[in-house]
Amino acid sequence: MDSDLQSAKLDSLQTLTACCAIYGQKELQEFLPSLWSSLRREPLLQVFQTASEKVEAECLAALHALSACLSCSVLSSDTEDLLDSFLSSILQDCRHHLCEPDMKLVWPSAKLLQAAAGASLRTYHRVTSSVLPLLLEQYTKHPQSSQRRTILEMLLGFLELQQKWGHVEEDESTLLSLRAPVCSVVFSALTDPSVQLQLVGIRALTVLGSLQGFLSPSDLELVVDHLIRLALHEEDSQSSKAAMEAAGSLAPNYPKVFSGRMVPRLEEELQSEREGESPRDHRSLRQRCLQALAAVSIHTSIVRETVPVLLQHLRKVQKGSEAGNAQDMVSVCQSLHRVALQCQRDAEGCWYYHQTVVPCLLAMAVQAAMQESAHPLLGKALLKEEVLAAMVPVISAATTHLSPELAAQSVSHVVPLFLEGEVSFLPQNSFPCSFQPFEDGECLEAQRRLVVLLMAFVCSLPRDVAIPQQERLLRELLALSCSCNCPFTATTAAKCFAGLVNKHPAGQQLDEILQLAVNRMEPGLAEGPRRTQALTLLLWVTKALVLRYHPLSSWLTDKLLGLLGDTELGPAAADGFSLLMAESPDVLHKGCHADVRIMFRQRFFTDNIPKLVQGFHGAGPDVKANYLKGLSHVLNHLPKPVLVTELPTLLSLLLEALSCSDRVVQLSTLGCLQPLLLEAPQIMSLHVDTLVTKFLSLTSSPTMAVRIAALRCAHALTSLPTTVLLPYKARVIRALAKPLDDKKRLVRKEAVAARGEWFLLGSPGR
Amino acid sequence: MVGPGPGGGAALENANPLIYRRSGERPVTAREEDDELPDSIDDREIFGPRAPPHPGGAECRRASASESEVPAGTCLSSRLRGGRDRPCRPVNDAESTVAVEFTPTIPHCSMATLIGLSIKVKLIRSLPERFKLDVHITPGTHASEHAVNKQLADKERVAAALENSHLLEVVNQCLSARS
User: Fold this and answer.
1) How close is the nearest chain A Cα to the Cα of B93, in Å?
2) What is the pTM of this model?
3) What is the ipTM of this complex?
4) Which residues fall within 8 angstroms of residue A248, CB to CB, at 6 or more apart?
5) Which of B56, B118, B40 is nearest to A45 (CA)?
């Protein structure tokens, strides 16, 4: 252990650790003093920063093992208590370092003490009874925030060890006897102006809160008050966030205190109207209240308190007429979403949430839509696309984890609401007129928009839940997606249709409805005012079927491929390939129980790439870009190993794509090539000349994103064999000098990285 | 020199370049993402975010630097600053000047020239040619600061030093250290 060779040190320490598990204290007895003096040396070297982290870690592990071994000794009255004398020598050497004014060796000493203390309950008590009062004293002696932070962090290290043994026993515990000073130190940290000290204080609070029986009820009240203050009124957002998260960790342990004290306070702050406060400050306070309410909603009993508060606030915002209401509503929805996610793990909480929130949101939306129909100029915030879109994840998260029986209950209400205007299950269900979102008529435009909420619900249901009147629903959705004037509604209807079709059991009914869809799509695509809408429907239905390997998907894909040559729809069709391959956030993903077969992307690739390539070669010059775009979208979503195997056949196409003047194609291709350079350098080497030329020229593109991507590719080039690259070194370094002075910082950053690597090519020392 | 190295060539071996984790990515602003608006070159681009206080001591011994820029982490015994206590700003885009001051914490550290050279090389490779570079030792912190500063300021001597493949190797090693 005293050797200069690091490997010798490591070996000897690991051997010692292993020995401790086998030998007893009798064997170790005579070696203890010298072992200790060797063990302590490495961590204490840290002050000179010549300590190796590995060796230090092994020293601490060895010390831990040694202490654990000695703890297993049986005491008898006449023999020496080895553990006690061993610990005494450790304490003697380390204690005074903790008290040094310049605090040079505090950390190493603390680590050594913690290693010994963590070994067993006995060592823990022995060490902490000596060290904790000392640390508490030191905290008071050092007034500077940075020093206090260090001391508190060391204290925290010991507190965290206590967690190993769970509860705090009355008769033995030093910690319990020091409760008042420990709490006072932690609370003082929470009120310190230094953010870093506050953060450590919050962490300490979380640890103390996890120790059963430590915090008294009056302590808890203070804790809640501090957390509220930090979460809502502390300027620094880091502290605010940390306090909210701490409330979330502590709430499950003390649900009554949090629901009884914290939630009412948050509610009060949320509703308070302050005089003289700027609207911006008021909004940020409200947002913090909303975030805090969500963070603390971990336990079902607390959820029962917070959800009504959130819904009440939503209603209040809905009625108000301030500008920026939409943003406020989105914030509430975000908090509701978080709560929904937290409720998912508990069946009772999940059902409570679903039953309370979903009908409430639907009722508010229906009410707003009806008012809109009657007085179109009022412009309700709730009906804005961004607010409706914010509600989607809330309803979806509230639905995905329902048991099939409860989901069936819920669907038997929601579907009739939309199909028949059956509003009886909604709270406050006296409405001025009837709800008929699937009927035609100018004045029903607002009502139609609510189909997005239907989509959120019905596409998130577990798969074996039967949907009442499903065929009728599908027909209505299909009609809406084709005939509606509003793009938002048409798209939503298409998505809802697709989501249902994806999960529909195979058979005659499915085939019929799909045939119906095709019959409506084809004329719509051929000509007329609604070509884009028809394309949207095509894309979503294709996606739904590709995911489940339905045979009709190939016919539909061919249709899409054909559209790449269309002057009007070509670019949108090309982007559609991204829609097909990418993960959609609201429908048709695994989280909402969609039928997603494994490797569907690979299969799509294999089936369709030859056609894309063929189409590209046969295409006229003005539409070639569409094929490339489609191709690069597919490639970008493929798992890398697959991409690498297919590379040789595609490379020439990709290189050609680099010369395309379309910015999206360039970006796509560059994004494709970069990982390939890293993973298939040998193949890429064959084209190094083209690659260097193209990349360098694209570093002058007018588009920032392209410049960045080109520079990243230039950087990635350095993975190719050095012999291949050296002839280009001087040229590349010269060329990369220009982007060092690019007007955009993000571009410069990439240029520096790339150029630095090129300098190191072939140089000694790389 | 710190540590038990026998000095000279072996000292270079012992001063293994420590690898510094970036203490946090510089957050990207909306302006920086805008294609049209130019960003001037500023201090943080060169010097990176401030390091958190080192828990082991009152002084921050590990200099902070953005990984893509100056490799302050090349030597254990130095501390890097952007010359903030001088009246001029360390980085001046409009006038194309950069001033970097570094502080060897051991006053007789024989690595001072090497550190300065590495910093200088990194700046040369990373900044547009229009920049005038000034790399020097913080006044009053090194025994031979005058001589070292003079060497670093002399372009021809720097170029000649980099022709020395052994020296270049060490410099490249420092600059290619990654986290």
Assistant:
1) 10
2) 0.77
3) 0.70
4) A295, A296, A298
5) B56
Mind listing the pLDDT tens digit for each residue in A549-559? Answer: 999 999 999 99
Looking at every residue in chain A, the average pLDDT score rounds to 87
Identify whether the C-beta of residue A447 lies closer than 8 Å to the C-beta of residue A376: no
Nearest chain A residue to B70 by CA distance is: A752
Per CB-CB distance under 8 Å, the chain B contacts of A155 are none
The mean pLDDT values, 10 residues at a time, for chain B of 179 residues are 30 29 57 78 60 25 30 36 43 84 70 83 89 86 86 90 85 64
How many whole angstroms separate alpha carbon A64 and alpha carbon A115? Answer: 5
Contact A705, A693 (CB under 8 A): no
A contact set with B (CB within 8 A): 4, 46-50, 102-108, 146, 149-150, 153, 196, 703-705, 737, 740-741, 743-746, 748-749, 752-753, 755-756, 759-760, 763-766
Tokens 């060329």 belong to which residue? Answer: A735
- Predicted confidence at residue A324, as pLDDT, reads 67
Chain A interface includes B105 (CB < 8 A): no
Q: What is the helix, strand, coil percentage profile of chain B, to 5?
A: 35, 10, 55
> B133 forms bridges with which residues in the sheet?
B98
- A730 CB-near residues (< 8 Å, 6+ apart): none
Regions of chain A with pLDDT less than 50: 47-50
CA A498-A504-A509 angle, to 5 degrees, is 105
Q: What is the structure's pLDDT at A751?
A: 94
Choose among A131, A129, A128, A151: nearest CA to A139: A151
Q: Are strands B97-104 and B132-137 parallel, antiparallel or unpaired?
A: parallel
Nearest by CB: A752 against B2, B38, B69: B69
Contact assignment for A753 to B33 by CB distance below 8 Å: no
- Within an 8 Å CB–CB cutoff, is residue B125 touching chain A? yes
Can you tell me the distance from the alpha carbon of A300 to that of A308, in angstroms, rounded to the nearest whole number?
A: 13
User: Rounded to whole angstroms, what are the CA distances from B94 to A263, B41, B130?
Assistant: 54, 9, 10
Sign of CA dihedral A464, A467, A471, A476: negative
Nearest-by-Cβ selection for A765 from B38, B126, B168 = B168
Per 3-state DSSP, chain A is made up of helix, strand and coil in percentages (nearest 5) of 75, 0, 25
Rounded CA gap, A227 and A754, in Å?
46
Cβ neighbours of B41 in A, within 8 Å: 745, 748
User: How many Cβ contacts (< 8 angstroms) between chains A and B?
Assistant: 94
